[in-house]
């Protein structure tokens, strides 16, 4: 299954985080806990990419990954993720929370920025490259602050397009 904007990803450089984003998968969330936030973002991905037949499998894979170790990387950021053989390309849903939630992060800081990543299970190097690029961008405190204050999905995608050349 090829995924992307309205179900059709074009070939892309996986280091380009912005190419994995879709305005309809950037959500300003109200969630009380980690599982609720993951569930809401999974439903958002399902609707945007026509993934109904994989929704439950993907959700369970993400939740199982959280049981292994928290994907809360610190500084208010979480990178929950799962890979499935049915996926051909990578995609990201972003959840931005006004009120942080406990994610059992390494630094015990509540999470306000969630980047839910999905993709194929046979492209580990590409996946690690995507994670690396996201981590490089998100370690910048000014970028994290800006993400929390932007109000439109298009602004968030434009911000990632702007910073991709700087990492």
Report on this model:
By secondary structure, the chain is α/β, with parallel strands linked by helices. It has one domain (17-166): Mannitol-specific EII, Chain A (3-Layer(aba) Sandwich). Helices cover 39% and strands 20% of the residues. The protein contains 5 helices and 6 strands; from the N terminus they run E-H-H-E-E-E-E-E-H-H-H. The protein has helices at 34-49, 55-68, 124-138, 141-149, 153-163; strands spanning 26-29, 72-74, 77-78, 81-84, 91-101, 111-120. Strand 2 and strand 3 (77-78) form a beta hairpin. The longest helix has 16 residues, at 34-49. The chain starts with 25 loop residues before the first strand and ends with a helix. Residues 1-15 have low confidence and may be disordered.
């Amino acid at each position: 299954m090829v995924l992307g904007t309205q179900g059709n990803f074009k070939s892309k450089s996986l280091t380009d985080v912005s190419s994995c984003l879709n305005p309809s998968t950037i959500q300003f969330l109200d969630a009380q806990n980690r599982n609720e936030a993951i569930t809401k973002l999974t439903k958002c991905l399902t609707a945007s990419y026509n993934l109904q037949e994989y929704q439950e499998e993907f959700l369970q894979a993400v939740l199982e990954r959280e049981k292994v170790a928290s994907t809360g990387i610190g500084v208010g950021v979480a990178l929950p993720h799962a890979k499935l053989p049915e996926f051909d390309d990578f995609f990201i849903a972003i959840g931005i929370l006004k009120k942080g939630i406990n994610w059992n992060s390494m630094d015990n800081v509540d999470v306000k920025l969630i980047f839910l990543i999905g993709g194929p299970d046979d492209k580990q190097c590409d996946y690690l490259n995507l994670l690396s690029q996201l981590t490089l961008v998100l370690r910048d405190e000014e970028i994290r602050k800006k993400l929390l204050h932007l109000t439109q999905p298009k602004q968030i995608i434009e911000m990632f397009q702007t910073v991709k050349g700087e990492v």
